[in-house]
Design a protein that fits this description.
Strand content: 25-35%
Structural class: alpha+beta
Strand order of the largest sheet: 2-1-5-4-3-8-9
Number of helices: 6
Radius of gyration: 14 Å
Number of strands: 9
Shape: globular
Distance between the termini: 25 Å
Helix content: 25-40%
């Protein structure tokens, strides 16, 4: 498979792992990872999938996540059911990242694209990490898919860039 484009169907067989938010932001409280069937879930929702090179990395932590937290209401007003961040980090690190950012519910989920399995299928990896990209999926159809290739830039993949395309 090659890179996804607006108009494509979201591919079948895509899964991620995550730890469901418990409402507790204590970083020492750990749940067990569960599988998330993205292909099945995305068929019935409007979702923004955001891939980042790594949890807690400078651009991702200082710019990317805060942009989505600040604009969550605007995404909801445009009918977005969920925002999902993925990275190659394991589900425990991703869950801790969500907690560190004060996320207590499923409006924003933090998931593992273990071994960049999905990102590799669309060719959007950089070594053993995902590239920085955003994909909007509306009931199984890709409506937006863009990369940010310039280091430190979230022009195409940050909340404002994605909102402008919804």
């Amino acid at each position: 498979m090659s890179a996804l484009q607006a108009g494509d169907s979201f591919p079948e067989g895509v899964t991620f792992t995550y730890i469901a938010p418990s409402g507790d932001t204590d970083l020492t409280v750990c749940g067990l990872p569960i599988q998330y069937d993205a292909s099945k879930e995305f068929a019935n929702k409007k979702v923004v999938l955001v891939a980042v090179p790594g949890a807690f990395t400078p651009t991702c932590q200082q710019q990317h996540v805060p942009s989505y937290l600040a604009k969550l209401g605007e995404f909801k007003s445009k009918g977005v059911d969920q925002i999902i961040f993925i990275a190659s980090n394991d589900a425990w690190v991703m869950a801790a990242w969500g907690k560190a950012n004060g996320v207590k519910d499923e409006s924003i989920l933090f998931m593992s694209d273990a071994d960049c399995k999905f990102s590799k299928t669309i060719g959007w990896t950089q070594g053993d990490r995902t590239k920085r990209y955003a994909i909007a999926i509306d009931h199984g159809k890709v409506t937006y898919a863009e990369l940010d290739e310039v280091p430190g830039s979230i022009a195409n993949t940050g909340a404002e860039g994605v909102l402008a395309k919804l």
